[in-house]
Design goal:
alpha+beta; SH3 type barrels; Fumarylacetoacetate hydrolase, domain 2; 2 domains; 8-stranded mixed beta sheet; 5-stranded antiparallel beta sheet; binds the ligand O=C(O)/C=C/C(=O)CC(=O)CC(=O)O; binds calcium ion; binds magnesium ion; calcium; hydrolase; metal-binding; fumarylacetoacetase activity; Fumarylacetoacetase_N_sf
Length: 419
Amino acid sequence: MALKSFIEVGPDSHFPIQNLPFGIFKPEPTSPPRPGVAIGDYVLDLSAISVSGLFDGPFLSGSDCFLQPNLNKFLALGRPAWKEARATLQNLLSADEAKLRDNPNLREKSLVPMSKVEMLLPIAIGDYTDFFSSMHHARNCGIMFRGPENAINPNWFQLPIAYHGRSSSIVVSGTDIIRPRGQGHPSGNSPPYFGPSRKLDFELEMAAVVGPGNELGKPVDVNEAGDHIFGLVLMNDWSARDIQAWEYVPLGPFLGKSFGTTLSPWIVTLDALEPFACDAPKQDPQPLPYLAEKISKNYDISLEVQIKPAGQEDSCVVTRSNFNHLYWTVTQQLAHHTINGCNLRPGDLLGSGTISGPEPESYGCLLELTWNGQKSLSLNGTTRKFLEDGDEVVFSGCSKGDGYKVGFGTCSGKILPSP
Ligand SMILES: O=C(O)/C=C/C(=O)CC(=O)CC(=O)O
Ligand SMILES: [Ca+2]
Ligand SMILES: [Mg+2]
């Protein structure tokens, strides 16, 4: 018999008792931010549970990690504390446990309808790195930016390529994105143009949230890297393709990416995703020993992108992909990131890279879907090559279990015109 909560949760909900993703919310506009987990259409206030003394295991009793405005302190405690929190909460919310179910006063204090809360960024992000780990995306971008002969550089198959992103402009789902201005790629012999980006794009990504991290100078072993990853979120790495194509030689993405990155508010833990673990693709050539994993895992997470065109009521699916298309695993990304001694800290964010699958219907950005604007997508009777002002982009993702889903909710943002 599957685990069930005393709280009614429909079969299509992303947030059954099997999930219990962590986030930061405000129950009222004026109340201070606090940690919560999603359960059905409710948010369970972990500060209230903590104050009631219900986190009574060895790692969490007496801890103030759930009385903080972000999850960093909890992340720093590591996997044993995460497992304890999950076990405590699954027990507390289960159908046959009376402690919360039969305590109207505590229920009143701790369960808030999700429709009433404001979600905030769940973590204070010190550093954000964005990888480039889908082979299909790398090949397609390579063909468009560098030509078919050297579409994928040989280094791509030896190490998970990445660039350092900008954490200050990471925002939570629902935040508007202002169209960036900048220098656009010149055509032919003309000078570059300057103005609002003409090739504004989304990138369908997920990101790993780093737990305890490592000391400067002490790399994390790839086989232990899983213990440094708390969970995953959906991520939109908004990209201005005209700015990017002109500026990225030779140091990589800069202003074409740093104007905004959107995260979904709920962090789904690797523990909740474990039933959906699957084999990662076979890597050829074999990675160097520091990247060779005993168990090389991906996760089966279906991903979908919808665009709601400016002025329209309905949105249109523009692509469907899956997290399991990634060539490099999150554990390899993390081990590679630290192999030179670089330290990761609680709350750091590792973007997966755009998650494109092999088929054109599974490409993870408009650059690929419209082949750099050479063709149009049709959406509810209108067409798009790149995003227009007023367009809203909505990502969703979930894993399907037997009679339940473990989902991420949505990650959305609407484009506002340049000032
Ligand atoms: O191939 C290139 O020059 C770069 C393509 C990207 O936009 C890379 C990027 O942001 C990483 C990713 O999302 O995979
Ligand atoms: Ca990216
Ligand atoms: Mg970005």
